[in-house]
């Protein structure tokens, strides 16, 4: 059992769940009057949405390790699980069971909400994770973009869930900025968070590729560090971090207009510090230790950014 848990990476799955409940909690407080006091994150369907998303991510982790056994024996031999603790055929069985149950949940959610989005996104994610692990991971740029895009879909799914329920709600009095269709506010915020998640996860994928150069060469992968070298890969990572920090300017503008105050700024500040920390580490000599530390810094940046909506609740309560 312990080896199965290590295989599906429970910490990463917990981050996904916390992200979804954090964003959902914020939208609940925004829409509390319209929902007549019922918090949608407490409903069974929202739990099912989180569960299905986590199960697809777990299945993706399994199939990724399934196709990466040879590389993992070189990059991280002490963490290799498939063939060492779990047989390959059982890994495939676990993978398909998780995906089958998750897709069944997506069908239920689609029928309950009268929308095709859950089935479409879940089916897209399942297939892209398989293709990514089997082939795209070893292709230049495309592999990084695919996994970053799938990560970005996590907050978007929550936005779709709330938009389907509150598609006619107007929030003109609640916020100082203006959108053409306030009823799509949950999706807009989900896309905004997804954009940050996309860029930061793309950055982290490049840094992880910098860690895994030797193993990826065995698989004849065409990653950015292998094709262009570690120095250029580092420069690209730093550039993406700078882009992310630049995109925080609109959030600072919201702060000036009273949208984000006090404790609501804490995750943003922590995220900025961890991003700057990673960037400074990347300026140091590219040793395996420094690359690993930079990877951890970007991971913390993502975590702080994803719990940002939870702290926005402080603004609403105050």
UniProtKB/TrEMBL annotation:
The keyword Hydrolase does not apply. It comes from the Bacteria. It is found in: Membrane. Its main location: membrane. GO terms for molecular function: transferase activity, transferring alkyl or aryl (other than methyl) groups. It is a multi-pass membrane protein. GO terms for cellular component: membrane. Keywords: Cell membrane, Membrane, Transmembrane, Transmembrane helix. The chain crosses the membrane at residues 12-32, 44-69, 90-109, 115-133, 140-162, 182-200, 236-255, 261-284, 296-317. Pfam families: UbiA. The keyword Aminoacyl-tRNA synthetase does not apply. This is Ubiquinone biosynthesis protein UbiA. It comes from Brumimicrobium aurantiacum. The lineage of its organism: Bacteria, Pseudomonadati, Bacteroidota, Flavobacteriia, Flavobacteriales.
